[in-house]
Amino acid sequence: MANTKELSVEDKLRAIYDLQLIDSRIDEIRNVRGELPLEVEDLEDEVAGLSTRSEKLKGELEVIENLIKEKKNAIDEHKEAVKKYTKQQESVRNNREFNSLTKEVEFQELEIQLAEKQIREMKASIEHKKELIATSKEKLEAKSAHLKHKKSELDAIMAETQKEETFLTEKSAEFEALIEDRLLAAYKRIRSSVRNGLAVVSIERGASAGSFFTIPPQTQVEIASRKKILIDEHSGRILVDTVLAQEEREKMEHLFSTF
Predict the structure, then answer these.
(1) Model confidence pTM above 0.90
(2) Which CATH number does the domain housing residue 133 bear?
(3) Same domain membership, residue 137 and residue 114
(4) Is residue 101 located within the same domain as residue 144?
């Protein structure tokens, strides 16, 4: 690989335009995937959230069912207490003892009524949670199926493009190594600030590609001479002449056609 200090201005322009062509091709490949990776990620989060919610509801359901069992056991105990105190009333010696046992019976019966009311409320809660679980299950199944489809779609695209993208990413790194740090930093800064990622453009019909602002003839001559690196004062992009751009496009198209 050549040393960056040995490169002429023309070589630098060719290298940075080649880098632009490679990076643009990588952009195209990634645009084919579009929002699909993010969509898959969002679906994975949704599925995980629905699974967690479903498990939480099932856990809450189990807790309520255990509480109902406890309440039923408590009712049985209260009923046994009622029987015991009622039986004891048959052998009391005075009204005070009878009244005391009557209060105990009333208390136990109130406890039974309260426990039965709580059981009814908990059974209603169970029905509600079962409905939520059923709805959650339906959503989970639908989202899981959608996720499976989207992942399959993404995997297919990745299988088609991953090899080329890896190759081009390596080539991009190779061309970056040819370019001096200051110029490379400018390229990356411009590239990140424009919507289409074009930091280096050619002259087309007297204007920089994608621009409506005409470049003065004298500046066009300077660009064509390839003696210094010039920036479009309107777009801020690095400029190359049409002939150089065409030569490098043909060279890169041959590289891209190997895939």
Answers:
(1) no
(2) 1.10.287.1490
(3) yes
(4) yes
